[in-house]
Amino acid sequence: MPRRTTNEHGENHERWLVSYADFITLLFAFFVVMYAISAVDSKRMKQVMHSIRWALHAEGVGGIGTIPVIKADFAQGLVELPPVVDELFRREQMELQNLGQTIQEALQRSVGAPTWLEMVRFSIDERGLVMSLSAKYFFDPGKAALYPEVLPIIDEIARVLKPLDREIRIEGHTDNVPIQTALYPSNWELSTARATYIIKYLISTFGFPPNRLSAAGYGEYRPVASNSTHDGRGRNRRVDIVVLSRTITSHLLSGPMSPAAMQQGNEAGKE
User: Fold this and answer.
1) Is residue 77 part of a domain?
2) CATH no. for residue 46?
3) Sheet holding 120-125, edge to edge
């Protein structure tokens, strides 16, 4: 019978280190990739979030009903903007507040309270100065044409906005009650038609440059209140005349401001 040979080499108890090292290497590579993906726009995101944070938390200015600033809590604790950029945002905020007060005073003189106070809500949010026209005062249900008796309100707003070098967006909104007519198969069409009607009126009556105007219809998908109550649905049926914030809009669309743009903004503010 052949003789069994003994294993001269002991069992290798450290083979697990090879697998462990491979696992650590893969884990390291995974985190490197994740960091690379997340770090691409981190600086840009901080700047954008600070832009919005400033716009939403600026203090209001007194007058005929201080225009409320819609606040948000999502942008706290980030790195501060450079002083020059921060000053441009503050100047823009003040300009929007003053513009809103000018329009309120014009409405007060021509229409009088409490009529326009019940019909138009003023606010400032990340878009700019927002004038929300309550649909129940301005439109027949299911129709896009303005009531003739509310045209003086539109006229006063238009007279203030016409001389300004500002982009204006008209946004139509509805509640969630379905509409299905031959002219407007859904709330999308109705909300868009109302916004477009006001744009056509501004162009034909006041000669607004068409390239300063844009229309949007959001249907029931951007509510400002709950659609579960009568009052909430009433608030959601509206058309927003939005004077777009030029500082925030350009910052979001074009990236961080260049030194030349900052200097141009400073010079414009001194005029």
Assistant:
1) yes
2) 3.30.1330.60
3) 120-125, 128-134, 238-244, 168-173, 213-217
pLDDT at residue number 24: 77
Lowest mean pLDDT among 56-70, 99-113, 255-269: 255-269
CA distance 170 to 157: 13
Q: Which two tokens stand for residue 71?
A: 């606040």
Please state, rounded to an integer, the average pLDDT across all residues of the chain: 78
Q: Is residue 54 part of a domain?
A: yes
Domain total for the chain?
1
Task: List residues bridging with 238 in a β-sheet.
Answer: 134, 173
**Where in the sequence is the domain holding 220, given as residue range(s)?**
41-270
Rounded Cα gap, residues 190 and 158, in angstroms: 23
Cβ neighbour number for residue 29 with a 10 Å cutoff? 10
Using alpha carbons, select from 7, 126, 29, 146 the residue that is nearest to residue 71. 126
pLDDT(39) > 70: no
In a domain, 2, yes or no: no
Q: What is the Cβ-side half-sphere exposure of residue 25, based on CA atoms within 13 angstroms?
A: 6
Distance of alpha carbon 130 from alpha carbon 270, whole angstroms:
26
- pLDDT band of residue 38 (cuts 50, 70, 90) is low
68 versus 151: the higher-pLDDT residue is 151
Q: Is residue 24 part of a domain?
A: no
| 18-30: average pLDDT | 72
